[in-house]
Design goal:
By secondary structure, the chain is mainly α. The protein is built from one helix and no strands. The longest helix has 16 residues. The chain starts with a helix and ends in a 32-residue tail after the last helix. The relative contact order is 0.07.
Length: about 50
């Protein structure tokens, strides 16, 4: 058990050293209309009421 804990702590240290780089994160937001323009029969949902 101690061996696994030591490996876990060592790997966390190694992988966290690379995270200090000045990495740039990009994010985006969008709005999309997904409502169908015409009537659509949705069969199979009758038992859910």
């Amino acid at each position: 058990m101690r061996f696994c804990l030591a490996i876990l702590l060592a790997s966390m240290f190694v992988f966290s050293c690379g995270a200090t780089d000045n990495a740039e994160w990009e994010a985006g937001v969008a709005k999309v209309k997904i409502t169908p323009s015409h009537f659509m029969w949705m069969s199979g949902y009758g038992g859910r009421t």
